[in-house]
Write the structure tokens for this entry.
Amino acid sequence: MIEPHPEHPHEHSHLSDMDVRVRALESLLIHKGYVEPAALERIIETYESEVGPHNGARVVARAWTDPAYRDWLLRDATAAIADMGYSGRQGEHMVALANTDQEHNMVVCTLCSCYPWPVLGLPPVWYKSAPYRSRAVMDPRGVLQDFKVTLPPSTRIRVWDSTAEVRYLVLPLRPAQTDGWSADQLARLVTRDSMIGTGLPLNPQDLARETSV
């Protein structure tokens, strides 16, 4: 069952053929001399290096290590995230969803591709795809299996529909065997997909294997 946020209407900004339109607009603006190619490159570079999932990973890691911050994040995610310097367009109204042993949260945008850019960067292609947007609602457990995530049958899966009014950040469960880890160390375990709900954080063994490669 899809979970709209109770305080916000379900309004979407419809973006059909978004990629095609963006590219066409980019070409037109450059051709008319309204935008410098270098400026566009700088915007792309900003989202690749300064705005991206590493921001959200720092938020999650802080919530894992600071109970007071976790409470604040779950109570007022917009303010708690802004406290770390992550705010702006597409991040004005944030809600954090905490996973538990009994409940797993997953985020979708059924009508377009609303996504929390300040903490996750630009949305992946699959997030914007029609198959994901439809199957996440109808068969969330099957979608998770496609992402190689298998949850116990007893775990409830809640699907939240992101809109133009509210965007979500999943707070995944902290991996085991990380007692005493610093926030910086923990942030390396947080994946983009785990903050959407289509994945899980890395465990320490996964991180060790990645480091040794």
